[in-house]
């Protein structure tokens, strides 16, 4: 299957079994990380931060062939589904928001790409995923990671949600996975999707005021699904190289302010 077909499959799924789902680097997958779903917990940065501009953010996207073995393509901001997902379980709200196309707190700007694992002949191998890189002008990046960590604990036994399109989703459990030893903070989780009968993974790495978020699923190999460590390393490295050139801003306040921005997808200038 060619790259565009694989990416179209991701968007058609709305990552309902992947981006309307979550997880991380499973144990035994080759990713390095500490057990417990995260690291850097409680880390409070009072120092100045570097914020990527929309133009700089566009340059951190991985190219179509930048990571060998993967087909990477730019996606619309709505690739994760339109509208804001809903849930009756308020403690699970950070997880639900992360799985939709309108994250909260809202980033100043985002770029979204899909990835699919493929052989050298470009035939699709079943692993589908999405990468969302978002930059925040205040403390939204750290607030997002803290919210995911709290929600995963509160919702370990699962939760129900409705996607922005109105599709019902039921997750049987949320399990913490080893987080990558990258960035200043990172979390990783596996959600068991009872609706689609496929696990969904999410890994989030915070580098200063920028989040690299990875979502994945595999309909053909649920037991072997992973968020590839080499893909995570490549994306985070590119973000951190760009951050070294970004202007510094004063320390963020303790809570994010309203109207910070929004998901830009492929419309970032």
Automatic annotation (TrEMBL):
Question: Where do the record's region annotations for Disordered lie?
Answer: 20-46, 238-269
Alphabetic keyword roster: Signal
Compositional bias ranges of the Gly residues kind: 20-39, 258-269
Its domain of life? Bacteria
Q: Where is the signal peptide?
A: 1-22
Q: Return the protein name.
A: Lipoprotein
Lineage from the top down?
A: Bacteria, Bacillati, Actinomycetota, Actinomycetes, Kitasatosporales
